[in-house]
Amino acid sequence: MELHESSFASLLSNLRSSTLYNELFVAAQEEAQKSNVRLSDLKKCVQSGLISAGWDKKLRNAVYHIIQSQYKLFKSSPLASPESEKEPIAYILKAQFVWEKKILKSLNSMCTELTVPLARSRSEKDKKDLAARWSELGVDGPDLSQIRPVYAPKDFLEVLVGLQNPNSANTGNMGTYDLPWGLIQVSLKVKTLNELRVQYSEMAITHCQTGTDDLPDIPPELFENERSKLGKKAIAANHAPTAREYSKRGCPVSMRADLWCQILGVDLQNVDYLYYEQLKSYVLQHDLLVDSLLYKDVKLTATNDDQYFVFEDFLYQVLLPFSRDNVVLKHFAYNSATPPKSYIRGKLGIEEFAVTYPPNGVIPFHGFAMYVAPLCYLYNDVVRLYYVFRHMYVNYFFRLHSVSSHPQGIVALSLLFEKLLQAEEPELFYHLIQVGCQPLKIAFKWLMRAFSGFLASDQVLLLWDRILAFDSMEILSVLAVAIFSFRKTNLLKVQCMSTAEAVLADLFTLQIVPLLQLSLFSK
C-alpha cells in the first residue's frame, strides 16, 4: 500500500484529532518534568521514558489502524470525484441510489400506515421507566404487532440480480454461451481458487488449526499447549499486526476476546465509557421508529434461536445506542451508500432542515441483529461488546448490505461463490440449474449475515477469526461452496428448489475449518 503526501497529511491529522495524541502529549510533559532529566538530553530522555511506558506500541497500533481504515479514503487520482471514490461504476452507484429510495419509501409507508412519526421525544415518565429497566429491555417492550422488517435478504438479492452493465446489454452481441449460468450478471474480477489458496495458505491442511487440532479428544501437548503459549506472547506484545498474524490459524477460546480487540484497535478508556453513556441518554430522550425495527428483528431472529435468546437484553443495549452513534457515519466516505435523510416537520425539501435518519445512517434489515449475537459470547462488558461490534460493522459488515463493486462487497462475494461453484462442482451446478434451483438463492442469506444464525456459534466465531486475521470476507464465499460440495451427494438427487433448501437447511453440525481446508486444498 503506497501512501502519497496527502495520505501522510491525513494520517497526521487523524492522529492529532485522536485522544491518543493528547494522552501522549501529557505523558511527554510528565517525562520532561522529571528531576533526573537534563536539558541537554531532553529529547532522548523523553523518548526513552515514553518507550519504557509502552507508548511506542500504542502509537504504532494507532498508526496501523488509521492506515487500515483510512487508506480507502485516499484518492487514486487527483481528478477523482467524491462519487467515484465511493463507487467507480456508475450503473452500480445508480442501483444503490434507487435501492435506498425504495428502502426510504418502505419506511415512510410504515409511518403513514401506523400513524407514527419517525422520531418523538419521550415523556419524563417513559425516560425513567426505560432507564430503570435498561438491563432488562426484553421485558415489556413496545407493541410490535404491526411492525415489519423494511427488507430481507431475498429482497436485496433481487436488486443484485437486476444489476447489468448497460454497455454489454445494449450491444446485442452476447450469444447463449456467453451468458453467465449464475444470477449475478456483473463482470467483476474475482479471485481464482489458486489465488485463494495463496491468500489462505496459513489454513493449509499441513498446518494445525484452532478449531480442529485442539479438540478435547486430541492430546493438548500435540498442539494446544504450544498454541496457548504463543497466544499469550501475542497478547503481551500488544501489537495489532502480530495479533492478526497469530489469528490466521484461529483464536483459542480464552484469548479470542483480547485478540479481536487488538486486531480492531479497541482499547477502551474512560472517555469511551462516557460516550456510550451519552448514546444511552439519546436512547432515553427519543423514541425512533428504527427502535421498533430493531426490537422486531431481535424478536424474529435471536430470541427464536436456542444459542442466542439469552442475550436478548445485551442485543438491545448494543443496537439501540448504535442507531444513535453518528461516528458510524464516517464509513459512508468509503461506502457506496448514502446516509438517509429526513426533514423536520413542516420543512420538507429544505436542505438546512434535513437530518440524517437514523443518526448512524443505517436502516436495519431482517437479520441485522445477528451481526451482534455471536459477539455476546465473547464480552460480558456491554460497552466493550458495543465497540467491538461497531468496529466490525464499519470495517466489514456494512459491505454485506450495500450495492458495490468493491472486491469485499456482497456483489463480488456472490459472484465469487457462483464462479467457484461452477469451477469446482460443474456437475452439481448444472444439475441445480436444470431443476430450477439457483445455488445463490440458497447461499445468499448465509453470505449477507456472515453465516450468523446458520452455523453453531463456536463455528461462526472460528469463521470470523479468519475474516479478521486475513482482513477479507472472501472466506464466506469459500465456505458456502464448501457446504454445497459437502452435501453434493444429496443435492444431485434433488428435483426442485424446496428439496434443495431442505438438504441445506441444517448446518449446525458442520465443522467449518475442515470444510474450508478440503475446499481450498484437497484438489
Automatic annotation (TrEMBL):
InterPro entries referenced in this protein's UniProt entry, alphabetically: Rab-GAP-TBC_dom (IPR000195), Rab-GAP_TBC_sf (IPR035969), TBC1D19 (IPR042507)
Residue intervals passing through the bilayer: none
Domain Rab-GAP TBC per the UniProt entry, residue ranges: 250-471
Pfam families the UniProt entry points to: RabGAP-TBC
PANTHER family according to UniProt: TBC1 DOMAIN FAMILY MEMBER 19
Protein name: TBC1 domain family member 19-like isoform X2
